[in-house]
């Protein structure tokens, strides 16, 4: 059997196997990515909330400072 004959004989099984593996990996990949995003979100959710509350406190203190400045100027 020559290499070209071997290639021609293996085209169909390789194509079928590639299609089956691709179809099997799509749901696994989707599940893995969803799992990763949910895990990352739960890990960083606390940091995001902490940063938002710190920014809110800084903004409110800056607003109070500027309001006090305006009151002293008037």
Sum this structure up briefly.
This protein is an all-alpha fold and 74 residues long.
Question: What percentage of residues falls in helices of 4 or more residues?
Answer: over 70%
DSSP strand content: under 5%
Uncertain stretches: none
The computed structural class is mainly alpha
> Could you say which overall geometry the principal axes of the C-alpha atoms support?
rod-shaped
Mean pLDDT: 89
What does this molecule look like?
The protein has one helix and no strands. The chain has 74 residues and is mainly alpha-helical.
Sum up the structure in keywords:
74 residues; 1 helix
SSE order and pairing:
Blueprint: H1 3-73
């Amino acid at each position: 059997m020559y290499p070209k004959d071997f290639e021609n004989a293996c085209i169909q099984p390789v194509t079928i196997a590639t299609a089956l593996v691709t179809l099997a990996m799509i749901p696994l990949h989707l599940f893995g990515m969803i799992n990763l995003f949910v895990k990352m979100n739960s890990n960083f959710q606390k940091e995001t909330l902490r940063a938002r509350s710190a920014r809110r406190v800084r903004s409110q203190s800056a607003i109070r400072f500027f309001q006090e400045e305006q009151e002293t100027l008037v």
